[in-house]
Amino acid sequence: MSTKKAAAAALVAALGVTALTACGTDDGRDAAGASGAPAPKTVTLVSHDSFNASKEVLAKFTEQTGFTVKVLKSGDAGEAVNKEILTKGSPQGDVFFGVDNTLLSRALDNGIFVPYEAKGLDRVPAAYRLDKEHRVTPIDSGDICVNYDKKYFADRKLAPPQTFDDLAKPAYKDLLVVENPERSSPGLGFLLGTAAKYGDEGWQDYWTKLKANGVKTVDSWELAYNQEFSGSAGGKQAKGDRPLVVSYASSPPVEVLYGEPQPKVAPTGVSTGTCFRQTEFAGLLDGAKNPVGGKALIDFLISKEFQEDMPLQMFVNPVATDAALPELFTKHGVVVDRPETMAPEKIAEKRDPWIQQWSSLVLK
Is the pTM of this model over 0.85? Predict the structure, then answer.
């Protein structure tokens, strides 16, 4: 999922919450210690830069299996997937985590994973299991949605927009900032959401309306959310003047968690009729040096322990039905009952031409 959790991940890193890592040799084992005794076996997890997990949870995996996790961060999601494609058959690690449904077909078509049906997969709803061959296992989900600045709309006694249609209405002229889908994961998700809503042809008419209604485009989520958006802590400091932004359904809990002082109510809300569902997957890499450890790690990624650790580490939702959300999410987050979705095969077919059409339509 790449840039979608960049700011939250940066905050987590700043607080010292990092993945448990250990350097390993090519045979999947650590170098021998000073005493000459072999160190615990390692399993290498390759991921995007936004991966985070608590030391305590990864230590539990080591306790249960004897394997120590080594985390290799490899850029944003697209960059990380491309690196694995280039090293197909001789991968950087054993397991890859972080390919989402917008990039899934690219990974599967290039054969970077080998099939493995994870233990406990029956606890994950079928709607998340997009690959019937089990080359990848669903790990988390999140919704790309328009967020709004509650104070802005309350001060003007104006109802916040709730749907895609609302965003094109005159009442919301010059209020929305979005990200360029060619450069930004949430920007791409929002574009796919409009295509899912209005169809292969209708989405262009919709964006024509948004452009006429003063939509502003920037290159990254960081710029949109922390510079242009008036509702975020960063946007307030930067004097952002756009009260609508494409972000995530999990953004309001993050605003509460890192607020100084911590507010009792989230200062931002979610327009639940503007959402596109993303699901992230993990897979056993073809050519993994430690496939046994890799399979054990995939099993652990959908375990109750890891699933319940994810929300406050990566600000995503668990997919396992027995995993409970933290109070921060249940109190300040929203449930998106009917997000827009799209088959990975269609995304693969349409993604690049749609981005080109969008650029010609919106940026010129």
Answer: no
